[in-house]
Every structure is written in C-alpha cells, then in structure tokens.
Design the sequence.
C-alpha cells in the first residue's frame, strides 16, 4: 500500500506545467501519474518520491491536494496477468475505482484505487 | 450595555415628539438654504409650515442618488462652506462621485451613533478595536475610528488591506473587536487559518461588519472562523456612514438611530409607505444634519421595519438585515436573482468556502449563470465522480432556491479575487 498524491487543476493551458514546475523545484521525482479530467477541471494523480515535500510545495503555490491510499502491484508482463489479478479482487467484492500502470522489461507495474486497499494488498501479495 | 439609554429606550410617544420637532427644523433649513429642495417643494405646492407632525414626512419630496450627482459638489450643502469640517465622497466608479459635507456638529453626531452601535454589538471602553475598514473618503474607517474613540475604546487605525500585518497586529495588540466589511473578515479568517493561527485562542470576541450585503449564513461562517460574535452595522455615506443602524445581542434586526435618521420603507413602484414587516425600499430623512440634510433619501436597499420593543431593552425601530440592494438584482432569463440568495445556499454547504463568484453571460439568446466556487480542501477527492457529486448537490440546492438552472464550477484555491473592502461577487458579461 502506498500514498498517492492528487491535485485539483482547472482545465487551462499551462496549469499542468505550473504544477509540475512546483514539484520540480521541490526536487521531487514523479514515478507514476494519471490525469482524470472533465471539460472544466481535472485531477492529477501521482506517485512521488517525497509526498510530504511535494504537498508542502504545492500548497505553498495554492494548489488543492489530497492524499489517498492506493496499492501498487508488480506483475509479469504476460497476457492474462491483469485479468488474474482483477478476478482475485472481484471474488472478494473489492471494487476498483480506477487504475493506471506501465510495463517495461518484462514486468508491469499497476497502481489501483480500490475500495479496501489493505485487504487487496494482502490478497495480491500472496500471489 | 446601552450607550445612550435615554434616547435608545425612550417611549414611542417621546420619540415621535422629538422627530416632529427635528423634522420641522430640517425642512425649514433646507427650504431656506438649498435651492434644489425649495424648488422641489414649491413645485409640489408645499412649504415648511405644512409639516406639523413627524407623520407629515410623506408629503415631502424624495431624493435619489442622481440628485446628489447632479448637484455635485456643493449644490446640496445646507451650511456655509466654512462650517463644513470634513468631506466624504463615494468612489464614483459608476459615474460622477457624490460628495457629503459634515459640520462639526454632524461629525460629533457621527461619533455618537457609532459609539451606540459598538455598544449595541457588546463593545465597551475596555475593548481594543482594530479598524480594518478603509480610511479616507469612504466613511467606514473614520466613522468607526471616531465612534470607538468616543466610546473610550482603544483604536488600532490599521485601515483596510495588508492582511499579513492585520494578522500580526491582531495577535500582538490583542484586538478584541474587528471592524471591516464581512468579505474582508472572511478573508482574514481564511488567512489566519492558513497561517496556522488558532483563532479560538485569540482575544478577539466581536466583529462589527457592514458596508456590503451579506447573508445570515455568511455571518455564521465568519463567527465560526474567527470564534467571535459577528454584528451587522448599517449605514451609507449619503445619510452619514456606518452606525445609522446596528444589530444588538438579540440579532433580530438592526436598531436605527431614529432620533437622527427617520426611516420609512416604501413600495419602490408606487412610492407609498408599506406596513411594518413588509419588505420594500428603505428611505431615510436626516433630521439633525446641518451640512447636507437629505429628505426622504431612497437608499435602494431592501428591508422592512418593526417598531416593537426589542428584548434588549431598546425601543428604537429595527430594520431587517439588508439582504439585497435593488441595484444588485440580476434578471436572468426573466427571473429576479439576488446574489445574496446564492450566498445563503452556498454558506450552508460544508464543501463550499466563502469564496465564490457569479458569472452571468449570454450564449445566443440564452442567459447563463455560472457559479465559480472554491471548495474546502478537506472535501477534495481524487475521484472525479466524487467532485461531480458535490457539484450536483450544490447545483440542486441553488436551483431549488433560484428557480433557474445554474452551472457550478469548482475552481482552484485563490483563483477568486479576495476582498479587502467591498467584495465583487458578480461579473455580468452580457452585452445588452
């Protein structure tokens, strides 16, 4: 289980850049990200190297932030792995709100926002 | 405490008697000294002798803001210029400014009515009053200043703006009363919280806020934010300035200093006086002013009166809190909308901060009302569906009150301009 940092952003040209600039200035590295958006605003979700430092830097610049518990899972990058993972969660009636991920050199990393992150973490660790 | 118990608690008969005397004097004075009023009264076929009783006030002509502009700068002075010791003026953003001249006696009465107001709000000579109203041509700063001095309180004449300094001095000097506009009070509260100040531990105990319409819900928000009892002070520079009326510990209307300012409430269409309890346009006749007395000045503020004795002991007539100025009314798709209606709804929603802006626009032939709103960070979510749920909830509540559809747009913190004086809550982009 890890902490995800979300930032509320107005859907305006340059706003995303201002946010990343604040994180860069704080010397914080972004390791994963995903943007959810509507016509007027969006929410940028990130996994960063130093959450506390990033929050401080963003708050200083007036950004609205939110911390959420999510789970991060590493799986082999082969067909069917994601399905296997999700079926375990489905069997336990754990809902996935959203997920994002990437694969590289044979392994895939997935960030999942689930209804019960602790339980999901235990379930998936044993696999 | 009651500052002037004799006057503030006098019987209705006595008050009527005083008003009759003073009204007669005022009418004679302006008839003699002000060509504008003489001509108006002559055209209506009335002369000072026709005013025999306070109730005869209805025979007098009305005065509107345009009359003050048309007679700018000194046309309505009823005293020789050498008798005028201070001038105040409105900002004049919507045309020529208006100017008000006060004689020494007027200035003293101003200090008297503000002392009454501060007492009515619970202030005493032991208080430290941080006056964060703007000082200058605007009557707010100097009005509260001299009123608080008259009361014998300690005045911190910091004026408006420079919020960081407001916060520092508030803590260092141990201010117990804050006087400013409600929007600035909300901003100061927000800034104190952002700076990590525990407002519960501050000695601040009373707020005296006015000079712009604000809702009862906003009053509660500010009370919670600053841990104070917030009072509503009413006034307008044409009539005198803040202190024309102020709420008391009952928070059930504002007591009017009616031995100086005779109020009426009229139907703005028929111009006929309405009964107690009925909303209409507030009208004032100044009955002790020397510099620039005004007969039946139409404030464009909407209120109602009650002459019932208040539980606080005061008998002076009460006006209901000003929720709207007729100038602020927006007509959107044919429906009358007051920004304060929107505020009342928003301030009851925990997700909403005190920072909002109404944007009226026209798309094709259709008027649109967009409400931009900064949301409380504690309700921020990483899920769009959750933000949209909050948004829809606010939309439904606002729409049920206004009766027209609105667009709710959550915006980032600090995007909405903060007020250090009179807040701008509406942007009307329609080109009509």
Sequence:
């Amino acid at each position: 289980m890890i902490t995800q940092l979300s930032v509320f952003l107005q859907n305006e040209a340059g706003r995303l850049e201002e946010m990343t600039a604040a994180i860069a200035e704080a010397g914080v590295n972004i390791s994963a990200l995903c943007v959810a958006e509507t016509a007027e605003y969006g929410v940028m979700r990130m996994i960063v190297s130093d959450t506390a430092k990033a929050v401080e830097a963003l708050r200083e610049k007036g950004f609205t932030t939110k911390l959420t518990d999510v789970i991060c899972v590493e799986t082999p990058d082969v067909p069917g792995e994601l399905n296997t993972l999700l079926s375990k969660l489905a069997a336990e009636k754990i809902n996935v709100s959203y997920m994002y991920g990437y694969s590289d050199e044979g392994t895939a990393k997935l960030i999942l926002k689930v209804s019960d992150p602790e339980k999901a973490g235990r379930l998936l660790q044993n696999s | 405490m009651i500052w002037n118990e004799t006057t503030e608690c006098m019987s209705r008969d006595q008050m009527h008697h005083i008003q009759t005397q003073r009204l007669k004097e005022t009418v004679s004075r302006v008839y003699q000294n002000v060509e504008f009023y003489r001509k108006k009264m002559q055209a209506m076929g009335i002369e000072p002798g026709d005013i025999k009783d306070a109730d005869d006030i209805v025979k007098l002509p009305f005065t509107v803001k345009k009359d003050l502009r048309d007679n700018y700068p000194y046309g309505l002075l009823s005293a020789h210029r050498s008798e005028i010791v201070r001038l105040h003026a409105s900002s004049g953003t919507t045309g020529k400014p208006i100017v008000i001249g006060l004689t020494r006696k007027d200035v003293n009465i101003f200090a008297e009515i503000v002392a009454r107001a501060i007492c009515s709000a619970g202030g005493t000579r032991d208080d430290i009053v941080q006056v964060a109203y703007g000082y200058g041509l605007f009557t707010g700063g100097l009005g509260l200043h001299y009123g608080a001095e008259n009361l014998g309180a300690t005045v911190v004449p910091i004026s408006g703006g420079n919020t960081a300094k407001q916060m520092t001095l508030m803590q260092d000097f141990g201010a117990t009363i804050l006087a400013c506009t409600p929007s600035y009070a909300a901003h100061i509260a927000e800034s104190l919280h952002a700076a990590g100040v525990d407002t519960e531990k501050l000695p601040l105990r009373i707020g005296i806020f006015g000079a712009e319409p604000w809702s009862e819900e906003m009053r509660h928000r500010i009370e919670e934010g600053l841990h104070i009892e917030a009072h509503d002070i009413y006034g307008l520079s044409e009539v005198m300035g803040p202190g024309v009326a102020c709420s008391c510990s009952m928070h059930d209307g504002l007591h009017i200093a009616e031995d100086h300012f005779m109020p009426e409430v009229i139907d703005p269409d028929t111009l006929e006086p309405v009964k107690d309890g009925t909303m209409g346009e507030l009208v004032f006749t100044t009955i002790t002013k020397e510099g620039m007395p005004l007969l039946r000045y139409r404030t464009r503020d909407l209120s109602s009166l009650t002459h019932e004795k208040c539980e606080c002991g005061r008998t002076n007539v009460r006006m209901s809190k000003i929720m709207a100025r007729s100038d602020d009314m927006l007509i959107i798709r044919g429906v009358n909308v007051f920004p304060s209606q929107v505020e009342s709804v928003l301030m009851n929603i925990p997700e909403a901060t005190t920072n909002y802006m109404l944007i009226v626009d026209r798309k094709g032939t259709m008027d649109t009302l967009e409400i931009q709103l900064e949301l409380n960070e504690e309700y921020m979510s990483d899920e769009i569906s959750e933000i949209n749920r909050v948004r829809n909830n606010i939309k439904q509540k606002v729409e049920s009150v206004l009766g027209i559809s609105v667009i709710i747009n959550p915006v980032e913190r600090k995007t909405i301009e903060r007020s250090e004086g009179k807040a701008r809550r509406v942007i009307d982009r329609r080109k009509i």
